[in-house]
Amino acid sequence: MRLETKDPNVLNDWLTVGPASRLADTSEMRPYETRLLGLPIKVWRTEDRSVQATMDGEKVAVQISYAYIWICPKGDPSRNFFAFPEFSQSGRRIVDCDGIGVAVSGLRMIENFLDMGHFPFVHASYLGEVPRTEVAPYTVSIDEVNDEIWATECRFFQPKTSISAKEPLETHYKYRVMQPFTAILYKSAFTRPDEMDALALFVQPLDEDHIIAYCLLAYYDDVSTDNDLLSFQHTIFGQDKPILENQIPKRLPLQQKTEIPTKCDATSVAYRRWLAARNVSYGALVA
Amino acid sequence: MQRLSLNQHQPLHLTCLSTTDVIKALLIMNPTSQTLTNDSLAASWIPIIPSSEVSKAKNIALGFIDGEELAIWRAEDGTAQAWANRCPHRGLRFTLGRIINGRLSCAYHGWEYSANDGRCAAIPAHPQMPPPRNVCATTFKVTETNGMIWASRSEPTSPPPQTNQTMFLRTLAVRAPRDFVAKRLVGQGWTQSDPNVLEGTIDGSNVTAFVSDAGNNLVLLHINVSHETGLAQVKKMHSALRRLRQEVETCWISEGEDK
């Protein structure tokens, strides 16, 4: 395999290559084709319904989880695949929003996903509104057992938190980073104030500076159509895209002092530290 | 001094040389090059963008200094600002931002930066907290003359060169390296009084080209003409300039193929 990276964080972990729905009507002769870490990927279903995949022409480990296709380039995952209990929790509705291509490092994409400070500026009249710009203090912790980052007790004033929201809401948030390229956010369900909707972001690194950002919803919303939910999500991602594509450099700087954070960036700071501690280099700028 | 470091395999003892000697040495080391380059002068004014392209406290324009992006804008009193085109917080291009209350506000998180010193003056996520003193845009020295905004990393000792051609005609973007474009024009009889100022004639009329290096083999020639130039002549000059661009680009492509 003509792999250019030696980063074990991407080679020995599961990376998504898209929704499992792409595998409909595929075969070895007519596979679903895409790209991962700069190399061509082919995935198909065999006649006995099992899934096979190649990366740069070589067989690689593949699995279907949470309605998505996951590939482990070296076939030797260094840890358990992350849990996503909300995916199979009764009462929740699963809506695959598919992906949007962004010319940026996947790490910048995840950092943007963890950020509340940009809501009133990038997502004005949806997820935030000037002058309600303050980010209240919240808690960041590391789940040592699963090696995940959690940001809890987050809240933000939102004019329209979701497609089902009919009025502004002080929305409560929780963020969770499972892998360098995957994260889930939990936010107050407008239709079920006692519950939290789950929104997963799975990033497919086509290469170090180009990604597809997929979004999968596990929502309590029982009023909106699939199309409404999907359109709302694409509106939000479409607002982030030009921002992400105009960050210089495209890769996430992990050296200290290259970019200056403030108090509300606690999750971003924890994420960068967590990446640096694991020696993540794919999509990063390291000293 | 970039060119010297590229030629490190040729030992050169600089300690006893004057600036003029260094320029001569550079020309000897590059015998084919007859053009002046920025490398040969320490702090000099670099032409960035025509003054008329930037309105007071309104738009943020994109400019370049030696291939590096700049965000160009004006304070409420009209003073031109030239900043490195990235917000120190999360690296977003300042040119996506807007101007609010005479400050540049970044499009990503609304952080506001003051004119002149570039200091961060407001962080909307923490309205009660004074911004840390170390958050600051990278600013350049700026001056305006000949209808151009000029910038420099440090304060140059002499003003930008003067020209009689003070009416802005157009910006001609040429896909070729800066030094190649300059050499080509000098080869056609243009004169180069300053590394970034070329003077010549287009369709019989005197013109001044302020050279701005956008990097990645892209050069912007900001073309000025005399105020007396008539409309009919301006029209003819536009087509002559397009031919000039095509000629230079074609020549660069064929030279690239020869290599």
Overview of the molecule:
The complex is a heterodimer of chains A (287) and B (259). Chain A contains 5 helices and 16 strands. Chain A has 287 residues and is an alpha+beta fold. Chain A has 2 domains: 8-72, N-terminal domain of TfIIb; 87-247, Alpha-Beta Complex (Naphthalene 1,2-dioxygenase Alpha Subunit, Chain A, domain 1), CATH 3.90.380.10. In chain A, the strands form 4 sheets. Chain A has a 7-stranded antiparallel beta sheet, with helices on one face. Chain A has a 4-stranded antiparallel beta sheet with strand order 2-3-4-5, with no helix packed on it. In chain A, strands 1-7-6 form a 3-stranded antiparallel beta sheet, with no helix packed on it. Chain A is globular, with a radius of gyration of 19 Å. With 259 residues, chain B is an alpha+beta fold. Chain B has 3 domains: 2-31, no CATH class; 46-152, Rieske Iron-sulfur Protein; 167-258, Alpha-D-Glucose-1,6-Bisphosphate, Chain A, domain 4. Chain B is built from 4 helices and 15 strands. Chain B has helices at residues 2-6, 19-29, 178-187, 231-258; strands at residues 46-50, 61-65, 68-74, 80-84, 98-100, 103-105, 112-113, 120-122, 139-145, 148-152, 167-174, 191-194, 197-202, 205-215, 218-225. Chain B has a 6-stranded antiparallel beta sheet, with no helix packed on it. Chain B is elongated, with a radius of gyration of 20 Å. Chain B starts with a helix and ends with a helix. The interface between A and B is medium-sized, with 25 and 24 residues.
